[in-house]
Amino acid sequence: MNTGKKKVAITQASRETAPILVKRALNRALLERQLLLRRVNLPPLAAIEHLVGMQAQAPNPPYFGLWARLEGFRQEELSCLIEERKAVRIAMMRSTIHLVSARDCLELRPLVQSVHDRGFNGSYGKSLADIDEQALAAAGRALVEAKPMTFSEIGKRLSEEWPDRNPDALAAAIRTLVPLVQVPPRGLWGQSGQASHTSSEQWLGSSLTSEPRLELMIKRYLSAFGPASVKDMQAWSGLTKLREVFEKIRPDLICFRDEQGNELFDLPEAPRPDPDIATPPRFLGEFDNILLSHADRTRIIDDTYRNRVFTKNGIIRSVILVDGFVSGIWSLKRGSGTAILTIEPFMKLSSQVQEELVVEGAKLLKFAAGDDPTHEIQFIT
């Protein structure tokens, strides 16, 4: 008896009979896990860990992201976490800057090393093909651990030892080979400055884990973004060839299908709310991970609107959610004591939805521009 073939046949049958989750069901599950069905009472650090980090290419978006998710969140709570080295800004998933807890920095950064390697090789690999990587990494680490440096400073200093190399390539190599965190005041609310870097080991006083657990990372991703496919996990992380790992932990997971027949994995006890549950309007900041963490993003944004949110120069605009889906963009302008919140819907909104957005928008203005005596909300149609 060929038990291998029988097992494959049973597995295939289970996939074909797995329950179907419609788009609205996936949307509500995502909102619940992203803490957006209702604001929750969680410490900011716990929320950051639950979300498996927050994309942070610009300093302020994580503040808006936590404000939209947490009851009574104040900017100083996150600023203190960064100053106290409990949360850090570091290139992580997709080789983009994320705000993560110190613990997740040490646990997750080794798991995405291949993503960083691939990105570097695609951009600069040829120009540094024959360089001694160990010597370069040691030199770069010594520089940033002696004094936090910008990438420009790193490249300039390394050019003294490798004068025939592109300084930008040298700095990018250190970003790849050494886990670099951005040090304050970068990332603090209301403060500005260039991004200066040191090693995570120097900043946190601990080494990266020597036994990273990809299986745990997958389960945490599903907890924050599931139900999801293998391709979804790969889109969020930047990793490839994850099918084998999913198969390894399949006994720990349950399976669904989307309306296109794609297999979706999930944690058995994860929340999957009623698809018709009401959702409040929400204002999300730039680069919010809810828009970036699936190969199929239609559970949160219609393909019709993607070009209005995802710009050609790589900016992911601040969006409004209405009935759980991206329904417009927003911007905030401050000057001369006046803060103006501009809302640009993608479709005609009912008077009730507009009123709800005004109420939520007033809270946003108080949070982001409380020092300004005058607040205005404008709709662009």
Q: What would your notes on this structure say?
A:
The chain has helices at about 5-15, 25-35, 45-50, 60-70, 75-85, 100-110, 115-125, 135-145, 150-160, 165-175, 200-205, 215-225, 230-235, 245-250, 305-310, 350-370, and strands at about 55, 85-90, 95-100, 180, 195-200, 255, 265, 280-285, 320, 325-335, 340-345, 375-380. The chain has about 375 residues and is α+β, with helices and mostly antiparallel strands. Among the domains are: about 35-210, no CATH class; about 300-380, no CATH class. It has a 5-stranded antiparallel sheet. A 5-stranded mixed sheet has the order 8-9-10-11-12. It has a two-stranded antiparallel sheet with strand order 6-7. The protein is globular and about 65 Å long. The model is unreliable at about 5-15 (pLDDT under 50).
Question: Notable features of this structure?
Answer:
381 residues, alpha+beta, 5-stranded antiparallel beta sheet, 16 helices, globular
